[in-house]
Amino acid sequence: QVQLVESGGGLVQAGGSLRLTCAASGRTFSRTRMGWFRQAPGKEREFVASISRSGGSTNYADSVKGRFTISRDNAENTVYLQMNSLKPEDTAVYHCAGSIGGTYSAVREDQYDYWGQGTQVTVSS
Questions:
Q1: What is the rounded CA–CA span in Å between residue 86 and residue 69?
Q2: What is the mean pLDDT of residues 50-67?
Q3: What is the DSSP letter of 89?
Q4: Nearest to residue 22, comparing CAs of 121, 116, 111?
Q5: Residues whose CB falls within 8 Å of the CB of residue 42, separated by 6 or more in sequence, listed in order
Q6: pLDDT (tens digit, 9 = 90+) per residue, 66-112?
Q7: What does the alpha-carbon distance between residue 32 and residue 113 come to, in Å, rounded to a whole number?
Q8: Integer distance in angstroms from the first to the last C-alpha of the chain?
Q9: R_g over Cα of the chain
Q10: Over residues 43-67, mean pLDDT
Q11: How high is the pLDDT of residue 47?
C-alpha cells in the first residue's frame, strides 16, 4: 500500500513557475510508477505526466510538453512536477497517482491504484 500527499500548489501569474511535490509512504515506492493528473472546474480529470520506476523514462501530455518536467527521488520517496511558463488554462487541482504494475506511459485513471488528495494550482492572467 502506498499513501500519497501533494504539496506546492498556489496562486501564480501567467508565465510563472511552481514545483509540486508528492510524498509517498510505504516501502514499495521504488517499485511504483508514478503520474500526475489534473482536474479543472467542470472538466474531467486528465493526464499530465508520468515517470517510470527508475525515473529513466517519462511521458507527457501534449498540452504540457516542453513546459512541465516530472522527476523522482527514490531515496526520498518523492516525485516532483516542475511547471514553467504557466498559463491560465493550467488552473486545476493536481493529483499524483501511482501503481506497482503496468507501464510508465499509462495515461488513464484506471491504470493507477493509489491517489493523493490533490493540490490547487491557480494561474492568473
A1: 12
A2: 97
A3: G
A4: 116
A5: none
A6: 999 999 999 999 999 999 999 999 999 999 999 998 898 999 999 99
A7: 10
A8: 40
A9: 13
A10: 97
A11: 98
Chain mean pLDDT for the chain: 96
Q: Which three cell numbers stand for residue 122?
A: 491557480
Interstrand relation of 92-99 and 33-39 (parallel, antiparallel or unpaired): antiparallel
Residue 97's nearest CA partner among 125, 118, 83 is 118
Nearest Cα to 48, choosing from 96, 98, 110, 5? 96
Q: Which residue has the higher pLDDT, 102 or 60?
A: 60
C-alpha cell at 72: 523522482
37 contacts 94 by C-beta, under 8 angstroms: yes
Q: What is the dihedral of CA 69, 74, 75, 77, to 10 degrees?
A: 90
Q: What is the pLDDT of residue 76?
A: 95
Burial of 88: CB neighbours in 10 Å, binned 0-12, 13-18, 19+: exposed
3-state secondary structure of 88: helix
